[in-house]
Amino acid sequence: MLKVPNSIVDCMWLNTHLYHKQLVVLDATVKKGVVKTTIPHLTDDKIPFSRTFDIQKVFSDLSANFPNTMLPAEEFEKKVQKLGINQCSCVIIYDRLGVYSSPRAWLMFLSVGFTNVAVLDGGFLEWKKMGFDVTQSEEHSYLKGNFKVKTNVERFVKYPLVLSHIGVSDCEILDARSKGRFTSKEPEPRANVKSGHIPTSKNLPYTDVLDGNKFKQEEELKAIFEILNPHRKPMIFTCGSGITACVLALAAKISGHQDGVVYDGSWTEWGSIPNLSIEV
């Protein structure tokens, strides 16, 4: 059985195993977001055999009040089966922005007890840079897979839990937004969302754990988290809408920290709810 060696794999590993019958490659690109990117246009090129994992339109609870909310486990199971994913599958996830939205899909799989999953370090940009084969994007239907939710693991949490940890000093809350948004010097991009940050939270822009399109080396990540969380407390990750918080969650995993959780509504929810405390 093909197993992921770590929570991230490099392009050489993926290219070596690209034709393995148990391998499933998912493109989890989020095309539209509020995060500025230096990439002017997303082409329709993709890694061969990759299947579209649409976070925004398919793998989010569209009935929720805030974007990118995690699906109920049973709905997630059905939609993953529709992609032809099986219990024995080895799932590699990438996005076309390097590392941006792919960790969100990674954490979704972990939240239902599926662990044979990893993120492609550097994503499609690194794949293309290394000169590996690409193909044009096409829509396919797949034979229904036998993927099953194993267990519900608390990876995505709601604001009452976050609120309960403020002022208790039993965890660290790390915010992946830019320093400008965290300090209210830059306006929030979403209408009717207040500026500021969750009280007692610390700022760790998600770009600070990356070196270009890839994650920084393990020792560098360890040093970052040692400064922000020297006592190795449990961590809650937050951002604008639950996407880049997952980049921090994966970076923490790489650095050897215990698993953290992501505040699913993140600042879009916190900054919209009346009477919740805000620091600027």
Describe the structure.
By secondary structure, the protein is α/β, with parallel strands linked by helices. It has 2 domains: 8-136, Rhodanese-like domain (Oxidized Rhodanese, domain 1), CATH 3.40.250; 156-270, Oxidized Rhodanese, domain 1, CATH 3.40.250. The chain has helices spanning 11-17, 73-82, 102-111, 123-129, 159-165, 179-182, 218-228, 245-254, 266-270, and strands at residues 8-9, 23-27, 45-46, 51-52, 90-94, 117-120, 135-136, 156-157, 172-175, 202-203, 210-211, 214-215, 235-238, 261-263. The strands form 4 sheets. A 5-stranded parallel sheet has the order 1-6-5-2-4. It has a 5-stranded parallel sheet with strand order 8-14-13-9-10. A two-stranded antiparallel ribbon has the order 3-7. α3 packs across α8. The protein is globular and about 50 Å long. The model has no long low-confidence stretch (mean pLDDT 94).
